[in-house]
User: What shape does this take?
Amino acid sequence: MKVIQIKAKDFFEFIKLKDTSMWEIFSQMIDGEEKEIIFLDEEEKILFNYILPQNLEKLEEDRKTFAKQYTDKISNLN
Assistant: This one.
């Protein structure tokens, strides 16, 4: 498994600037090899990680799961 480290702040600024989603970026990274994406803060501490799947179908499942979990967390804050 390939490991990719990404500075979270820079990554999210980049996708905002490009007016795209992280899921679109992830879909472009799929090449049949499983990858672990590690998001780092400014001090290079791990914020979270994501195992990029080997195919678009699994990526779409992950996107839907993430969206549901995000919605649930937001609704619990209100």
